[in-house]
Amino acid sequence: MKIHIPPILIATSTSILVWIPSILSLIQSADAASASFGNHHAPLAAFSTPVSNNVPRVTKSCHANISSKPICSYYEVQIPTSQDGPPRQAISVEDLTTTVKSILKESGMKHGSVNVISRHTTTALTINERENRLAKDMSTYFLSLAPPDERSSAEAAQKDTQYFHNDIDERPDSAEEAQRCRENGWDIDDPVELQKWRDQEPINAHSHLLSMLLGSSETIPVVDGEMVIGQVSLSKEISNFQDRM
Q1: What 3-state DSSP class applies to 8?
Q2: 3-state class (DSSP) for residue 52
Q3: Fewer Cβ in 10 A, N or C end of the chain?
């Protein structure tokens, strides 16, 4: 069974994000489907009702069935950052464990695996202990590996540190990126529109680099309806605090 969770936040870099897209999937073998899911044929109705801004919510779901028994379900979930205040460049570590457990319980799956994937390139996923002081250590350590550009608004911006990706005034510098801009509604052939696009681009190369180091997905075994992760948490790290879908 597959569950797709779009916006999930963990800690990985420094940019501006509040909602991040990720994917959670629960997968179960066809042979075990009928036994594991029993008579649970309906989608997760518990997540179809709107929730408050500070609570994760599923925004999309689909299911693959065999003989009317679900073997794969896909969910997109929005998870807000726990950071207070307006959008800013900083690392946020968010615990996804409770959300994933809730979806797993509602699915009725007993044996299989859960796949969680972040769909944003400045976020990352990891399994580790959820402890406040450790979260601070994570932020300090990650930013020492890839410090923010001196042109960044991040508090940790480091003098004499610059990345090619952050040379916004020279982008887009490839036909591929230019086409992507057009597909996203930017008329970059118009100098005024081109400048507007450049003005909204974040200085976040270090966020992308940290995401590459940490990885964007985790696969967790499920046995007897429980994730096999021990006394740890599934966390997501992000750098940009701004709404994203």
Answers
A1: coil
A2: coil
A3: C
What own/partner pairs with CB < 8 Å and gap ≥ 24 does 224-230 have? 224/110, 224/111, 225/104, 225/105, 225/109, 225/110, 227/100, 227/101, 227/104, 227/114, 229/97, 229/127
pLDDT by position in tens, the chain (length 245):
433 333 333 333 322 222 233 445 555 544 444 444 433 333 322 222 333 456 777 776 766 666 666 678 888 888 777 777 666 778 888 888 888 999 899 888 888 999 999 888 988 998 888 888 998 999 999 999 999 999 988 888 999 999 999 999 999 999 999 999 999 999 999 999 999 999 999 999 999 999 999 999 999 999 999 998 876 666 655 555 443 33
Nearest 10 degrees: Cα torsion 243, 184, 217, 9: -10
- Boundaries of every domain in the chain: 22-158+204-240
Tokens 């696969």, residue located: 219
Helix-, strand-, coil-residue percentages of the chain, each rounded to 5:
30, 25, 45
Alpha-carbon separation of residue 181 from 12, 177, 185 (angstroms): 25, 6, 7
Torsion of CA 161, 165, 170, 173, to 10 degrees: 150
210 closest CA partner among 17, 77, 55, 79: 17
114 strand-pairing partners: 26, 220
According to DSSP, the residues that pair with 85 across neighbouring strands are none
Question: β-strand 69-78 against 22-27: which pairing, if any?
Answer: antiparallel
Domain 22-158+204-240 sits in CATH 3.40.640.10: no
Residues 6+ apart with CB under 8 A from 93: 9, 10, 11, 130, 135, 138, 139, 235, 236, 237
